[in-house]
Amino acid sequence: MISHPPLKRWICLNTTIILIICGTIIIACCMQYKSLHPWDVTPREALLIQKELARQLIFENNLSQIKTVAGADAAFKGEMAYGAVAVFSMPELDLVASACARRKISFPYIPGLLSFREGPVLLECLARLPVEPEVVMFDGQGIAHPRHCGLAAHLGLILDLPALGCAKEKFFGQAEKPGLSRGSRALLADDQGRALGLVLRTRENVKPVYVSPGFKISIEQAAEFVLACTSRYRIPEPLRQAHRLAALSASSPG
Q1: How far from 193 is each of 45, 205, 225, CA to CA, in Å?
Q2: Domain 40-251 fold
Q3: What tens-digit pLDDT sequence spans the chain (254 residues)?
Q4: Is 126 exposed, middle or buried (0-12, 13-18, 19+ CB in 10 A)?
């Protein structure tokens, strides 16, 4: 199991967590989120939910001087889903908090409906965080999705937080190749020319990532956050660490 500070007891009271660690009481924030729909649904019901949620998405925001950004990712093993969230300070990119969770998979693997497979365990991780991040990036899609409701759009709306998707591969849309230098980008659009996101080069001469806004963030803002969180590696550090934590959790016995 992933090591954490030794907890004697924890209590969650609405929006407050009281941690008692070695006799010291620490009071921290407990994230809450909206319950917009049931998770125990059929694939057909999930499609209809996505269409309804997409109509509620907004991208206007007042983002300025962001101090924390989180990465969220999930791993799977057998019948279990393992989620992890890592919160980093901005602009220093120091790890300030993390949380993991696991639960039984309740939805089949269906491309385009992955938020129903990953969403519950990631929301559980986010609810366990001792701090509330100001922006959340997900290993997946935002509006670069057939129904404009990928993982980042879906969970961003539920969390009511700015959220973006940063995917390793293209899932939906058309784009030219960006230039080879860091920061080069090409528009990702649907077949009607509507903007969905950007193909973004985070390191020189390295394969690009696919960035799309999810909720309360613009396309350009999403790209700038990804670049700000990327240094030595192709993948933004919050997502890289969340992926590492989820993989460690999935590989741990018990």
Answers
A1: 29, 27, 24
A2: archaeoglobus fulgidus dsm 4304 fold (3.30.2170)
A3: 333 333 223 333 334 444 333 343 334 456 777 789 999 999 999 999 999 999 999 998 888 889 999 999 999 999 999 999 999 999 999 999 999 999 999 999 999 999 999 999 999 999 999 999 999 999 999 999 999 999 999 999 999 999 999 999 999 999 999 999 999 999 999 999 999 999 999 999 999 999 999 999 999 999 999 999 998 999 999 999 999 999 999 998 76
A4: buried
Write the CA distances from 241 to 100, 103, 118, 225, integer angstroms.
Answer: 12, 20, 17, 16
Residue 134 CA to chain centroid, in angstroms? 12
CA dihedral angle for residue 209, residue 150, residue 239, residue 117, rounded to 10 degrees: -130
- Model confidence, pTM: 0.86
Q: Where are the domains of the chain?
A: 1-30, 40-251
Residue whose C-alpha is closest to residue 123's, from 131, 135, 115: 115
Q: At what angle do helices 115-128 and 151-159 cross, to 10 degrees?
A: 40
Cβ density class 5-19: b for 16+ within 10 Å, e for less: eeeeeeeeeeeebeb
